Amino acid sequence: MTQENAIQEKIKHVSQPVDHGMIIEKNVQIPMRDGSYLMADIFRPDTTAQKFPAIMNTSVYQKDKVWTPPHDLEEEANPYMNWETVNPLWWVPRGYACVRVDSRGTGQSPGLCEPSSYQESVDFYDAIEWIAKRDWCNSNIGTSGISYHASSQWRVANLRPPSLKAIMPWEGRADQYRDQAYHGGIFSMGFVSNWIATHTAHHLLGRPRSFNPDTFQPDMLWQYLRHNLDSDWWRLHSARWDQIEVPLFSVGNWGGWALHLRGNTEGFVNAKSKHKKLRIHTGTHFHPFHSEEGRLDQLRWLDYWLKDIDTGIMDEPPVKLEIRTGGSDKPYAFRFENEWPLARTKWTKMYLQLDQQEQQEGDQVEGTLSESLPNKTAQISYPSSAITKAGIASGSSLSTTHGNVGRTGISLKTKPMTSDMEITGPLMCNLWVSSTSEDMDIMITLRNIDANGNDVNEVGQHGQPIPLTKGWLRASHRTLDAEKTLPHRPYHAHTQRLWLEPNVPVECQVEIWPTCIVLKKGHQLRIDIQPRDGLGSAPYTHFHCDYNSGATNTIYSGGDKESYLLLPVIPN
Length: 572
Description:
This protein is α/β, with parallel strands linked by helices and 572 residues long. It folds into 2 domains: 3-174 and 237-337, Rossmann fold; 346-570, Jelly Rolls (Sandwich). Helix content is 19%, strand content 29%. The protein has 13 helices and 25 strands. It has helices at residues 3-11, 88-91, 118-132, 148-158, 176-181, 189-204, 208-211, 220-226, 232-236, 261-270, 287-290, 292-306, 398-401; strands at 22-31, 37-45, 52-59, 97-102, 137-146, 164-170, 182-183, 186-187, 248-253, 276-281, 319-322, 334-337, 346-354, 367-370, 378-383, 410-413, 421-435, 441-449, 458-459, 465-466, 469-474, 506-519, 524-530, 552-557, 564-570. The strands form 4 sheets. Strands 13, 14, 15, 16, 17, 18, 21, 22, 23, 24 and 25 form an 11-stranded mixed beta sheet that branches. Helix 3 (118-132) crosses helix 4. It is globular, with a radius of gyration of 24 Å. The relative contact order is 0.12. The model has no long low-confidence stretch (mean pLDDT 94).
């Protein structure tokens, strides 16, 4: 059966569109437990013949901001489209109310803004329970939305609102420390600082200024920098898997390796929910959500849990993966699986074979990835602070805004594939390293290289070309949480710093975010190990602390220094 035929068959078993008409209620005041209120917009069917479930969102993205989508979106632009939320013109005819809530201190809602906070989760809980009691609602609430709208679902699920019957976090970070703010303990300044500045400007230089002049004034950047190790502060801002029991459909994107994908896979594996599913697709941050195929998955899930319609979705295997075969800007075919990671995975160590010192050209490599551990230990050193047009200006903003001159770090490649090889799942890189400084940034990029030596890129969440995946670790953060660490997914405690002694090697396990690729015959897998952000990092770039200035880093491999890349190889 073709994908198109499969979609048409599934459509027969879901809510069908009915022209009820649509009631739009703007700026509805939803009371909070502390005496405050939030402002919401409600879109619902114009009939009293029956009651309807609601799909709810809360965010700082302003419920009144109309989103004009790109021309190739599978849903047409209309005055009710809103960034990363469901389209009322599609959902209301199918018997759902759509409720958008401005978070406290943003958009139309008064108060002190606390993005992605515990307070926001408590407010979302109160909003859910208030909406569930409206006379038009059947008391069943579900959530669906992208990014911020997904992250907020994890956090409200921690609190277990009685009326929340199902969640569908679509590309949603879950651990605010590990997924968003500190990749491997390295501050993700590029995205975080730009996000804060942009939304401050949206509010204070945009329309909210006229009706909410004190809007959006979080001390978010200071708080993130002040809490630079993991703590209870971050746990209150994050998903807590042992408290999440609601049925969940976790939806990730293979291109979301710098913000969201980890949250979706960790949520599926660790949440306490008895009923959970995982889907990972490709493409931008918004096209799959608004595609016919993506909307059908959402409708089948919410129909089942909010309307008690047997859509067949719970009869399917729990894991649905789009299998990348390399270089397409169109969706790949999906494949169903029974678990994550896949039970038939052949965990394969590819050892670093260090052959020569650091090269200066971007397409050259310093060694190979081999299935055999080299007998003798070898080492390669490289500068940890790349020179910019301003020199090594660690005391200036130029150190983060000016591009590097030349290449930094080392690269290795496998031999050309003798046949197609699938890599699907989480990855890990075990490295022996040292530095002349007290700390060291390890930044890893995995790349698909074709038979002509060219990168085969995939589509990133912003539509940009991206490599396969990335991993990061600040060497002083190498301490593992023994209870949560798995052989294929190290879990770093991030609660202390073990400073390096000059030129003394230490072992570091670097978590690399999951990927999926079928490396074609003749292709090679390339790993870049660098002290700075590598190929395809923007906009998810990092702050390079002053311990990098003027230091020299060293990688060791062979003998008693087992440095290797652990691959999740899927047998044919």
